[in-house]
Specification:
The protein is an alpha/beta fold and 359 residues long. It contains ten helices and 18 strands. The strands form three sheets. The protein has a 13-stranded mixed beta sheet, covered by helices on one side.
């Protein structure tokens, strides 16, 4: 059974000048003068936390600009979420709040705050999600973020591309940003299936009536994850990071790029496909791959017109992938290779760029 953290009671003294307060595994009485006139507030805690009282932080501190809560607890009895934003259900308005950062392993904590505090000036939202247990959890997160739907839509319409990260032994991370609105949203997902993650992301995009495109950054990737990501039609750019930068500890064997993109998939009900079918940009400038490896992948991924026709004459559908803009490392083995002109003019290539690895 979780126990509440100790309460620190500081009596007397002048606290009006305190603008920045950080607490670790300790709580203050909610009537404390330390919890007023703050500009930044950070609470990191293990154990129970009076989430319903968290709204008071925003009421008591109208000048609050930054709110950070890292909470690892379960078993909270929080009232049901209100209807979506715009129904006058907010209990507080944080006009000065510019950034909010919440890490939690009980979704009700973030939902309670985001659905009850209106944050019209917020420019940065960072959420670190531990277990989401049911589809209702995912839907409630989408609902809690509904006050930011216009800004999410602006970010998607402005650039059209969001970023998804998959690093070994780290949470999946999805982020988007809008330069025009100076707005950033990032969500880290731990212990959640890729099916549920993309469902959550698609719902956020759908609520804003915007098209969703994704740029995916991959470190060493096990076969099972690559196969799932390879089915996401929203992925238009793929950035492959060097496997030498990461340790890899997984039962499933890591796929090899760019070879993996040439693997043919058979769908018994449809026909032949290739992973990351809608991919348009491929950045492999961090890999030590040779021109021959890229050329071989292209020949397997993009069948010739005659081969496609022969397969289709047999009644088998062939899903033709999008052409690629490819970025490779500027090394002598590429610059001096006799096969590079064949890659540049390949039926599956829009452009070939030489460059240094992105930092």
């Amino acid at each position: 059974m979780p126990y509440p953290p100790p309460t620190l009671n500081l009596a007397g003294g002048q606290t009006n000048q305190i603008k920045h307060l950080r607490l670790e595994n300790v709580l203050l009485p909610w009537s404390s003068q330390l919890l007023t006139r703050l500009e930044t507030f950070s609470l990191e805690i293990n154990g129970t936390v009076p989430v319903e009282e968290m709204v008071n932080i925003f009421i008591q501190n109208p000048g609050l600009k930054s709110f950070h809560l890292s909470c690892h607890t379960e078993g909270l009895n929080i009232p049901a979420l209100p209807t979506p934003a715009g129904s006058n259900t907010f209990q507080a308005t944080a006009n000065s709040l510019e950034e909010i950062n919440i890490g939690f392993n009980d979704l009700v904590i973030a939902n309670h705050i985001l659905s009850r505090v209106y944050m019209p000036a917020c420019r940065s939202i960072k959420l670190a999600v531990k277990p989401l247990r049911t589809m209702d959890d995912i839907l409630s997160l989408d609902m809690a973020l509904s006050q930011f739907t216009p800004k999410i839509g602006q970010a998607l319409d402005e650039d059209g591309r969001t970023t998804f990260y998959n690093w070994p032994e780290q949470p999946f991370k999805w982020s988007l940003s809008s330069q025009q609105e100076a707005f950033q949203l990032s969500i880290e997902f731990s212990y959640l299936s890729l099916e549920d993650i993309i469902g959550c992301i698609r719902d956020l995009a759908s609520a804003s009536a915007s098209e969703l495109e994704m740029e995916v950054h991959l470190g060493p990737t096990p076969q099972c994850i690559a196969d799932e990501l390879g089915n996401w039609t929203e992925i238009t750019r793929l950035h492959i990071s060097s496997p030498y930068k990461f340790s890899y500890d997984h039962d499933d064997e890591a796929v090899v790029f760019p070879d993996y993109l040439g693997h043919t998939r058979e769908d018994p009900g449809s026909g032949l496909f290739w992973p990351f079918h809608d991919l348009q940009e491929l950045d492999i400038s961090e890999l030590e791959c040779s021109p021959v490896e890229v050329f071989d992948m292209l020949n397997r991924r993009y069948l010739s017109s005659s081969d496609i026709q022969r397969v289709r004459d047999l009644g088998i559908y062939v899903g033709i992938p999008s052409k690629l803009d490819i970025r490779v490392r500027d090394t002598p083995k590429w610059v001096d290779s006799v096969i590079v002109p064949a890659i540049k003019s390949h039926r599956g290539v829009k452009s070939l760029e030489f460059g240094s690895p992105e930092i």
